[in-house]
Design a protein that fits this description.
360 residues, alpha/beta, Rossmann fold, Glutathione S-transferase Yfyf (Class Pi), Chain A, domain 2, 2 domains, six-stranded antiparallel β-sheet, binds adenosine-5'-diphosphate, binds magnesium ion, RecF_2, DNA repair
């Protein structure tokens, strides 16, 4: 798939913007705070309806404006799709594909798959489990409509259950209703656990090979799913934890407590890896994400690299750049030196300055 163009109206620091991207590598360069990441964010919203950094719709609308428009032209299998996203300050957003409004975010699925890579992703191994779950969920939600809806339902029920646990403190009679929530939590939770497990098994194989390559055959990276409970045990364990949950007013068992385990040799590198191992493994993980998407959608995703190259040493830069030659990439950076240095093929270059983008 290919993003042909992006138009913005009152989005972040862009009053009006129109850019035409090309196949291959597109570079956006410019000083800090000029609007480079904002462009990638708008692209991400077009593909997923959400900001990559979790910003609220109203925060993406230009200061002092009421609404904002993003129009993206995508080419996929020789077909064109125009995705229009209309962000509104106090109401939910409107989305249209080829001018036909869609009701559910999931109708957008499969038109524009995005892999977003930012410097924070390099900390995914050393940071807490919630970041690793977020990685898993963001990817699975782009690839699997059923997962998206199961996860939304699970989170909704989890919140309601937690609220109920608090209410029971004051109204003991509500205890009878708890099992109704438990039943639903288990139902959705089991589906989430099974999907995560299957996905990570496949991803684990890819990560292993990529990491072996990046590390020059020196390291074997093993990624495994570390579920808080299994699909089979969830119901029993949830029941067994009921007293504890009532005491602490929160749900202590379930996939909302899952994690991913990364091992090199016998060492759990989340805790015992060197900084270098953790960052290289994170790079391997992001690169396997690209492979995994390719495999599942039988097409290439669009890769967004936000200021990430300057974080990598030159051999890792080379590895990354060499392995993305066949997919459309939009790269942001502050200078062009790193590309000149690596004599990397660049297809289009833009300079971003204070909410204006100029083709170079
Ligand atoms: N809602 C908004 N309205 C107007 N400007 C915004 C909004 N949100 C962020 N900005 C501005 O966008 C700029 C940051 O853009 P960003 O894309 O993060 O820069 P960079 O080029 O460093 O990636 C800042 O100047 C910030 O004030
Ligand atoms: Mg930025």
């Amino acid at each position: 798939m290919l993003i042909k163009s992006l138009e913005l109206k009152s989005f972040r620091n862009y009053e009006n913007l129109s850019v035409a991207f090309t196949e291959g590598t597109n570079i956006l360069f410019g000083d800090n705070a000029q609007g480079k990441t904002n462009i990638l964010e708008a692209v991400y919203v077009s593909g997923t309806t959400k900001s990559h950094k979790g910003s609220k719709d109203r925060d993406m609308i230009q200061f002092e404006k009421e609404e904002s428009h993003i129009r993206t032209l995508v080419e996929k299998n020789e077909q064109e799709f125009q995705i229009d996203v209309h962000l509104k300050k106090n109401r939910s957003k409107g989305i249209a594909v080829n001018r036909i409004p869609i009701k559910k975010a999931s109708s957008l699925f499969g038109i524009l798959n995005i892999v977003f890579f930012s410097p924070e992703d390099l900390n995914i191994i050393k940071n807490g489990p919630s970041q690793r779950r977020r990685f898993l969920d963001l990817e699975l939600c782009q690839l699997d409509k059923i997962y998206l809806s199961d996860l939304a339902n699970y989170n909704k029920i989890l919140n309601q259950r937690n609220k109920l646990l608090k209410d029971i403190v004051f109204r003991r009679e509500l205890l009878d209703t708890l099992s109704v929530w438990d039943m639903q939590l288990v139902e959705y939770g089991q589906r989430i656990i099974c999907r995560r497990s299957a996905f990570l098994e496949e991803l684990g194989e890819i990560v292993y090979n990529i990491h072996k390559n990046i590390s020059g055959n020196r390291e074997e990276l093993i990624l495994t799913y570390e579920p808080n409970t299994s699909a089979e045990q969830f119901e029993t364990e949830l029941a067994a934890a009921r007293e504890k949950d009532l005491k602490y007013c929160q749900t202590s068992v379930g996939p909302h407590r899952d994690d991913l385990l990364f091992q090199i040799g016998d060492a759990d590198i989340r805790k015992f890896g060197s900084q270098g191992q953790q960052r290289t493994s994170a790079l391997s993980l992001k690169m396997s994400e690209i492979q995994m998407v390719k495999k599942l959608i039988h097409d290439t995703p669009v890769l967004l690299l936000d200021d990430v190259l300057s974080e990598l040493d030159s051999s890792r830069q080379n590895y990354l750049l060499a392995s993305i030659h066949d997919i459309q990439t939009i790269i942001t950076c502050t200078g062009l030196d790193e590309f000149v240095k690596n004599r990397f093929r660049i297809d289009r270059v833009f300079e971003v300055r204070n909410g204006q983008v100029e083709l170079k």
